[in-house]
UniProtKB/TrEMBL annotation:
PROSITE patterns: SHSP. It comes from Hibiscus sabdariffa (roselle). Belongs to the small heat shock protein (HSP20) family. InterPro entries: A-crystallin/Hsp20_dom, HSP20-like_chaperone. The chain crosses the membrane at residues 138-156. This is SHSP domain-containing protein.
Length: 168
């Protein structure tokens, strides 16, 4: 890939395709018809990119060339990058290191049986007072007390009922 000052270069783009062949293997396929293996160069740059270049003579002092760079994944083992040229296709295999598994979440708290829920509910209802085991009776009792309080408040405001608070 030497350059001559009188040479004319025509830059072109190449078609590429990424394929995940296995969990730990990615393949970059570059379609480059008209090139030979000797006209291609594959390298890893100091910036951590994969650079693919090619240059071939078209006629006289006219050359066709391309250059393309791809970022290498951070979990790729750069020492195991392999390139193989077959006909019109360059296949570059990148071995991907398996990513460390995230830590398993803590085990959920042990499940509480239905019987334990019933027992807790009974204790709660019983703890509210009056020892009522039937929730409907408890709700009715609450509504009756609320009604009495509201009726007393209303009657007091209308002046129908006088309440003298002792000690005030």
């Amino acid at each position: 890939m030497d350059s001559d000052p009188t040479s004319v270069y025509e830059d072109f783009d190449v078609q590429t395709e990424w394929i995940r062949e296995a969990i730990e293997l990615d393949t970059l396929i570059v379609y480059i018809p008209g090139f030979t293996k000797e006209q291609l160069k594959v390298e890893v740059t100091t910036g951590g990119n994969l650079r693919i270049r090619g240059e071939r003579k078209i006629d006289g002092n006219k050359f066709g060339r391309f250059s393309k760079e791809f970022p290498i994944p951070s979990n790729c083992d750069q020492d195991k990058i392999k390139a193989k040229f077959m006909g019109t296709t360059l296949r570059i295999k990148l071995v991907v290191k398996p990513s460390p598994r995230p830590p398993r979440p803590a085990a959920p708290p042990p499940a509480v049986s239905v019987e334990e829920h019933r027992l807790k509910y009974k204790r709660f209802v019983h703890g509210l007072g009056m020892g009522m085991k039937n929730p409907r009776k408890m709700v009715n009792m609450f509504l009756a007390v609320l009604f009495i309080v509201l009726l007393t408040n209303y009657a007091t405001r209308l002046g129908l009922l006088r309440i003298k608070l002792v000690g005030y």
